[in-house]
């Protein structure tokens, strides 16, 4: 990341800019988790990259290093019942807003992975921001946020798997794998499933009208 970012006629230093990303948006079970992170101008995070391009072991190595070296970081969670109530996009915004508000230092600018900005009502404040498509592989602060979100969520899913056995949640982390879908069909959904998602909610059987003749 360059030390100064120009946006909207204003300049922001690297230590005023938070990267924001989420993990678990496409899952059938578990929460969506967002991370927010401000990195210092200089840091030592070997291999920092999009969390999806790193092994679980590499993410686990970077996770404490990011938290130690970051100017500020935060995590936000939106649970399955929130997702079912307000839809996954709005729940993702909610998680992102919670992550930003959890930071010990308030950022002056946000860089969001993807193609959508966080609405002010989710942030509960007005912070200038831009979205960066594939930002988790381009912007170090977003990469760091993605690692925080993914690692925290994976750890959480391992814990959840112990409370809801039989679904293999600690292996697929709630994604819609064949084994997961088959388990839902066999056991039915648990409290951690997103009941409004296809492959979780029962498919409606078309009713055949009878004939009087």
Give a short account of the largest sheet. 5 strands, mixed
Number of helices: 7
Any idea of the CATH topology? Answer: Nucleotidyltransferase, domain 5
Query: What separation lies between the terminal Cα atoms?
Result: 75 Å
Outline:
globular
Total count of domains? 1
Over the alpha carbons, how many angstroms does the gyration radius reach?
19 Å
Give a verbal description of the structure.
- This protein is an alpha/beta fold and 213 residues long.
- It has a single domain (4-187), classed as Ribonuclease H-like superfamily/Ribonuclease H (Nucleotidyltransferase, domain 5, 2-Layer Sandwich), CATH 3.30.420.
- 36% of the residues lie in helices and 18% in strands.
- The chain contains 7 helices and 7 strands.
- It has a 5-stranded mixed beta sheet with strand order 5-4-3-6-7.
- Strand 3 (17-23) and strand 4 form a beta hairpin.
- Helix 2 (80-86) packs across helix 3 (88-101).
- The longest helix has 24 residues, at 140-163.
- A divalent metal cation binds at residues 21-22, 113.
- Its main location: cytoplasm.
- It comes from Pseudodesulfovibrio methanolicus.
């Amino acid at each position: 990341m360059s030390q100064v970012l120009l946006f909207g006629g204003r300049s922001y230093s690297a230590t005023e800019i938070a990267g924001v990303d989420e993990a678990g948006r496409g899952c059938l079970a578990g929460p969506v988790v967002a991370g927010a992170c401000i990195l210092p101008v200089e840091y030592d995070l070997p291999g920092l990259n999009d969390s999806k391009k790193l092994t679980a072991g590499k993410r686990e190595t970077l996770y404490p290093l990011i938290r130690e070296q970051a100017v500020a970081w935060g995590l936000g969670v939106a649970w399955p019942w929130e997702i079912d109530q307000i839809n996954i996009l709005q729940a993702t915004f909610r998680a992102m807003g919670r992550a930003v508000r959890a930071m010990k230092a308030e950022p002056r600018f946000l860089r969001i992975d993807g193609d959508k900005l966080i609405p002010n009502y989710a942030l509960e404040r007005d912070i200038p921001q831009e979205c960066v498509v594939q930002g988790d592989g381009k912007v170090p602060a977003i990469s760091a946020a993605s690692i925080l979100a993914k690692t925290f969520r994976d750890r959480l899913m391992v814990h959840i798997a112990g409370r809801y056995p039989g679904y293999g949640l600690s292996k697929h982390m709630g994604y819609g794998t064949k084994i997961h879908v088959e388990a839902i069909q066999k056991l039915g959904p648990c409290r951690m499933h997103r009941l409004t998602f296809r492959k979780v909610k029962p498919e409606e059987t078309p009713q055949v009208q009878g004939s009087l003749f």
